């Protein structure tokens, strides 16, 4: 009995140490990246390239998913309020708040984790296993500076930007359904939104999306640099990057919300 | 000068290097030979700080590199050109951008000068008109040669060649041998070459070192290697399957029985 629990503690201990050393390496990655950014060692060309790759190329899928999210929110809210109050009311309020504070940031982040997180982890992972990361050192370039910095900036900027776009497109989707399905005039929809929504609600969502962007890129870059063992390793790193960042997004969303509410932001 | 003393490196339970002592003198070409998987590539990467040894010291021109931080290490690494065993070309960049990569970072050459130098280096390895191709469009031997052009482009003080002639036809292999020799003669480059190609080793080396069971067991001039009485070295350079080096393969074939 004691032997078994001893072994169990041993195993737990090893896992704890692994976890601690991982946290250490992640922190190191974030610190190094911030130092390069602070020193102004940013390659504009690759950063712009990454912004295009991450931002512009993701906008169709983000636009489409948020359009339909806004539409379904308006449909549900209209149906529910009609059941309760006999008329569809407060659609704009519900659609606006849900999108701006929760669904816009979270949906955008989850889609970006799948799309961008995977591609970053796969790209850096492939470079790692084919010694391209080593080659960077021999050609006078620090891999964190060359690979991590542009992706950090691009994700940190583009995820919030796409979130704002998702909010706008989603609210337009809600407007379409409100006007044509529930026959509510658009002026009522806009009033429902603007009478209750404050700048701080908008900031609430935006701050969360910045965190989500950093979670996505940190996880992906870290998994890429950790990658080992050929094509199989790249596959594993990519899957881990997506799964871990999705979980982190959903879990941290709760705590970030709690924190922001406590700070009276939104 | 590169001084390696007592370097040990293991990967989990696999003790690859077990106390390597080796000195590379300025201006010489030192070839490292040894069986597949004995840790030649690992040794090169340790010398360059791409891997950290578990024990031992590595001095590059007197600087002990195993304890340097990233920035200081990068300074030392700039003295090196490295031809990777698998070429390690950046596959998102064109051949031109690959070869010019180091020039872009380490020199203040303008675009025209970089482009001229890239063309010159590609010509040295017998490649022309492929500047705008991506690595995926090249053959194995072409990749190797682009990797070589990239390694020499910045005129480094030390060049490490990890199997420069594997995958090349015999004539191209000799062109590369001549290139290594002329870099040494004209630019006084110090080279460390890893190869299995004994013909090339004899031709280009000032000294040959053999890595066996995690240690350097022999260092000598090509003539000393040819006439060695060391049974391990003799077996290796003559390519004999019988001798002190045993190869783990099932010896279960029995051809006589199959009549
Ligand atoms: N990153 C790594 N992780 C784990 N093991 C490694 C790693 N790199 C090398 N090894 C192991 O170290 C040993 C030596 O590898 P190395 O690539 O140095 O061999 P080599 O002498 O260059 O062989 P070859 O002539 O076939 O290129 C091998 O057993 C290999 O499995
Ligand atoms: Mg090797």
Q: What does this molecule look like?
A:
- The complex is a heterodimer of chains A (266) and B (259).
- Chain A is mainly α and 266 residues long.
- Chain A has helices at residues 2-38, 44-54, 59-85, 91-129, 132-138, 143-180, 186-196, 199-226, 230-262.
- Chain A has two domains: 1-41; 43-262, no CATH class.
- Chain A is built from nine helices and no strands.
- Chain B is of the alpha/beta class and 259 residues long.
- Chain B has a domain at 1-79 and 192-259: Rossmann fold (3-Layer(aba) Sandwich), CATH 3.40.50.300.
- A six-stranded mixed beta sheet of chain B has the order 6-7-8-3-9-10, sandwiched between helices. In chain B, strands 2-1-4-5 form a four-stranded antiparallel beta sheet, covered by helices on one side.
- In chain B, helix 3 (95-106) runs parallel beside helix 5 and helix 4 (111-124) crosses helix 5 (140-152).
- The chains are: A mainly alpha (266), B alpha/beta (259).
- The interface between A and B is medium-sized, with 15 and 27 residues.
- Residues 40-41, 85, 162 of chain B line the site of magnesium ion.
Largest sheet of chain B, in brief, is: 6 strands, mixed
Number of helices of chain A: 9
Radius of gyration of chain B equals: 19 Å
Helix and strand run of chain B:
EEEHEEHEHHHEHEHEEHH
Low-confidence runs of chain B: none
Structural class of chain A: mainly alpha
Q: Strand fraction band of chain B?
A: 15-25%
Oligomer: heterodimer
Biggest chain contact: A-B, 15 and 27 residues
Content-based structural category of chain B: alpha/beta
Output the CATH homologous superfamily of the domain at 1-79 and 192-259 in chain B: P-loop containing nucleotide triphosphate hydrolases
Global morphology of chain B: globular
User: Given this structure, which CATH class of the domain at 1-79 and 192-259 in chain B is correct?
Assistant: Alpha Beta
Bound molecules: adenosine-5'-triphosphate, magnesium ion
Report helical residue fraction of chain A: over 70%
